[in-house]
Amino acid sequence: MTSRPFVWLRTAFVIGMISCISTNSVAQATYTPTAENLAAREWFQNAKFGIFIHWGIYSQLAGGGNPGGEEWIMETEQIPIDKYERLAELFNPVKFDAEQWVKGFKSAGAKYITITTKHHDGFAMYDSNASDYNIVKRSPFGRDIMKELKAACDKHDIKLFFYYSQLDWHHPDYYPRGRTGQVYTGRPEEGDWDKYIDYQNTQLKELLTNYGDIGGFWFDGWWDQKNGNYRDRWRLEETYKLIHGLQPQALVINNHHVTPYAGEDVQPFEQDLPGENSSGFNTTYISDGMPIEMAQTMNGSWGFSLTDDGFKSTKELIQTLVGAAGRNSNYLMNTGPMPDGRIQAENIQTYNEMGEWMEIYGESIYGTRGGPVGPRPWGVTTIKEENLYVHVMDWQDSLLTVPVKDASVISATLLRNGKKINFDVTPTGIAINIPEKELDEWDAVIKLTMK
Ligand code: GLC
């Protein structure tokens, strides 16, 4: 018996990290990430858990009683720009307290935050000189959300990522329009696409130069032009070079739902575990050469919803986080702050419960990679150094055979309390005896220490 499978797995992982060449780009054939970027990717994969924030002037309408509206309400209710802009004049989230947010997210166990700097409505939640359509220049609040959040993140050792919508329902030069933001917006029937991309890159440059080191960019909205002639006119190569030139460690993530393009550093999946496609728009292609991340809502909405009470249980969220880790993926869990700047009480309670779980089980999540046994109906596995963590989330019997062959197991313990459990190395794998009452846990984690 040897421990070779584990050595092999770690080697395969390192090789995977280095060969990050995408085959899908039209503009740029290859991309070689810098050393800083590779280190940031590794940090990212170790971090495993982040909080996504959808917050903007749309939060005031709270979905208008229609779950799913939220950050899309300009589009779903076909609100023209001249009316929608009034939301900026009304936006005054006086209870916003960046430090309180960050402390709350940190207590849930999150290591990073990804926040909407500009969503599809085009309104910037930071002080931009490229357009006065931003929180400092147009709202009575007049404070730069990103500045305050970055300061709080630095103080509490949390990394900050910026979500940025490539599509823009407000900018006249975002033309030709894609499949959204049509005539109702009141924009002219012409525009200069390249001028819009220049504008976007100017805004990105502001975000890259005015807020210190950031974790990276999370792009969204590419899909707006997916079926049109402008599908490949985003000048991605130039944009990605701008980012990596100014901040080599900044990770580029683009939620376009297709195979990653050269210059991207993380492949995201929306509302689905990587490889699954219940949402109907995810690709089932999973990169093995770059980190992956799944984003999910705590109810069904990204932005704050007045009526969406479909909150997932903490058990479900934890099991999804674990399922993601077992698939070698990060988990980005979303919250939609309220228009006054507070986070919903329901979310805060969930953070506390998640944090308690992470306190005990975090060892089997942080710093791990997906284990040698792929997802099974009973759960997943994760690995870290000489430890294999068996996450048993749905199993009725005390005996479970984990199909790892030729393993040399030194000890098996319940992660929760360190109690030894019986095991047997058989020709088909490691047979473990799980105490029956543990089977009721959200995730009975068995820690197998290998030679
Ligand atoms: C989708 C939605 C968008 C949301 C994003 C988050 O692209 O259209 O509103 O921000 O998902 O993953």
* Helical segment count: 12
Question: What is the radius of gyration computed over CA atoms, rounded to a whole number of angstroms?
Answer: 23 Å
- Identify the CATH class of the largest domain: Alpha Beta
* CATH homologous superfamily label of the largest domain: Glycosidases
- Regions with little confidence, pLDDT below 50 for 5+ residues: 1-28
* Content of β-strand: 15-25%
Please state the average pLDDT score: 93
Largest sheet: 8 strands, parallel
Following the backbone from N to C, one meets helices and strands in this order, namely HHEHHHHEHHEHEHEEEHEHEEEEEEEE
- Assign the structural class, choosing from mainly alpha, mainly beta, alpha/beta, alpha+beta, or little secondary structure: alpha/beta
N- and C-termini, Cα separation: 10 Å
